[in-house]
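QA checklist item 7 of 12: single-chain prediction sanity check.
[x] sequence parsed
[x] length recorded as 427
[x] structure emitted
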Amino acid sequence: MAIFKGKLRWWMIGLVTLGTIMNYLARSTLSVAAPTLKDEFGMTTEQYSWVVLAFQASYTAMQTVAGALLDSLGTRLGFFIFAMGWALANMGHALATGWPSLAAFRAALGATEAAAIPAGAKVTSEWFPAHQRPLATSCFQMGTSVGSMLAPPLVAFCILWWGWQEAFLITGGLSVAWALLWWFGYRKPEDHPAITPGELEELKKNEQGIEGEVRPATRGAVLRSRGFWAIAVPRFLAEPAWQTFNFFIPLYLVSVWGLNLRDIALWAWLPFLAADFGSLAAGILPNALMRRGAGMIASRKVTMTVGALCMIGPACIGLAGSPGLAIALFCVGGFAHQMLNGALITLCADIFDTRAVGTASGMAGSIAWIGGMLFTFLIGQSADQFGYAPLFVALGCLDLVGACVLWGLLRSSPKSPDGSNGRAELG
């Protein structure tokens, strides 16, 4: 395919994708182990939600800080430090003796895992021209669902054969191995010995931005940008769905349908396989639309809207008459979320200068995780009493509202006479 011309950049995004796989594999270890740990520690669903909230709160607080540190330290050093941190924090879970200590290790994991998505956005802006960013973003975003997909069979196998402590040690150890691979394998384009002159020249031209627009480069300017809020508010509304899928699918299957750990290993990974296809769709659909004359920003908005409409599927999980149908609707939700979220993440690289992408992505991520954190609190307070059905309806509605916000706040100009793509109006 012509789109893969300039192969080194695809090796770099492949390295980031492997990192996001390790990130989400470590993150998802707890959700698979949750039924075992609830029995081990005598946890209630509310106490488990506090453990999840500890992760979400530290992750939210560190998103902006992590993005700024990546901009300051550089992508290579910054991502290496955070990756080693989350690896050690994840292995520390094996020392937990109750839900309070589990929450403490979870908070440490959240603080260190916060750099993954800003780092991916930053690598995309450093290594890819604008027309290739949707597919590049889709690649590293696929790592989030692949990691979540690998967790049920791998973690369940570790628990059944060795124990829950070993599950955390193994997934953390894999992250250590990746961190070392990242340190020795990643360089910025201008510092990489294997880059071709033609590929480097293409990237230097792209640094000038789209149609010479002036982009905000400071945190205050980012916050004053309407384009930032057009991304941040829909991410705030969309994130609850993904975090619910990541942290509560195994508990839902156990509490509502009575499945056991072996059943979870067999079936709980399927929504994340579907999410991989959603990530691919987030890269393929915008390119297809742009080839047919759509503006760049408009193509992202359409992609996000299609994903939001698909979220009607998981809103109906409460009506499912069997665990198989419930899992199928979770699959629709995984596909839909990764499709719409891929479009939103790509917009950060489209709108902001490479020097500010990490900061902007981190700030948007913090706002998104506040939404996820609030919804987790709602689950903890209401799931045991009212069930999960109304919560799934709310998830579907939130994404539809997010699509409306995106179209209302982010305008895109039509394709210009010289053939360049539409751009966001940030004023």
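[x] summary fact logged: The two ends are 37 Å apart (CA to CA).
[ ] second reviewer sign-off
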